[in-house]
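Treating backbone geometry as a discrete language has practical consequences that deserve illustration. No coordinates are needed to read the tokens, only the vocabulary itself. For completeness, the protein is quoted in full, as a sequence line and a line of structure tokens:
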Amino acid sequence: MALSTDDVRRLARLARLELSDEEIDAIGPQITKILGFVEQLSELDTDDVEPMTTALDVDNRWRPDQPLAGLTNDEALQNAPARDEDCFLVPPVLGTAATKH
């Protein structure tokens, strides 16, 4: 199934890609190969294959979900480069003061 140039342009637009004519000519055959591979995969009989979340045969090692004590303000701020009493002190990002119009 070969894609037309218009098909490739539509796919690029859907993916929010701006492609030149040269890029469209180059990517068209690549997309056709990818779709051909996906079509081959759809021919596989997967009726007896159990769904899985990973290709590896591993189990997650979850720790027990238990509430623990958090940091105190002093512990949290001990390595802060600047602080103002019990708060982090950071340089202004959006200006020094908000103005009303």
